[in-house]
Amino acid sequence: MAISPDLPGVALITGAASGIGRAAAIAFAEAGCTQMALLDLNETGLQESKELVTQTISATTPAKTPNVSTFTIDVTSTETVTAVFGAVRTHFPRVDYSVQCAGIITFGGASATCPIDDFDRQNAVNYRGLWLCSREAIKIMHDQELDSDAYPDAKISPLRAQRGAIVNISSGLANYSQAGSPAYCGAKAGVLALTRSDAIDYVGQRIRVNAVLPGIVDTPITNPSPEIRKWLEENSVQRTPFKRMGTAEEIADVIVFLASNKSSFVTGASWSVDGGFGAGY
């Protein structure tokens, strides 16, 4: 991917302990980003991600010292989200890229039988939690100078400059559905509406907001058991034109592109990265 090998700025990634979040952190490091805040509830996974990201930065940009910090966060808690983003702002001079990857998948059944606790939990993490994180990132970005001024050595065109970029992770199931998943599909559809609204509200402040809609991706969240893996391989994967699952790295490359100045004229967009699944749905 034609991303600058010296991507300036500070990246903040929620859900960074595994899967797409971890892959995104590594992709930022491969693009030359040397300052990163990794957020998740899984402290063990966070430390593993930190080691991988630090190693990648050292290999990609050996002349620069990695500045990678981890923060434990519960995205369902307003107080915790506010406190953690405040700690990030204290530790780093600014936040240039904020990627919201934290999410869960529990298909609780059709609406008449879906437990209310399950519905509330999915919305608390996948929609409300994402909104809490995104709004705190916007607050930080709103008051910082354009990246063209903050990083003069990067020679960013004033036309393409930004105060920050937000990438929200939604799902292909925001646009189409599958049986027994109203809570998950509804929460992910909400992310798209939120993304469009924030994109309109903050474009004047030069903050871009976009969403990525992964299809069936080979990550821990889609592999909770051999039985579910087998069902996906025999059903959903066979309806994907590529006839395979995507990789977290393939999603991460699009995330980095949407966060970077390479996509300076893109905001309020929903990028499907689903192997063509939606095209033939």
UniProtKB/TrEMBL annotation:
Signal peptide: none annotated. The lineage of its organism: Eukaryota, Fungi, Dikarya, Ascomycota, Pezizomycotina. It comes from Exophiala bonariae. Keywords: NADP. It holds the Pfam family adh_short. Belongs to the short-chain dehydrogenases/reductases (SDR) family. This is Uncharacterized protein. Coiled coil: none annotated. Gene3D superfamilies: NAD(P)-binding Rossmann-like Domain. GO terms for molecular function: oxidoreductase activity, acting on the CH-OH group of donors, NAD or NADP as acceptor.
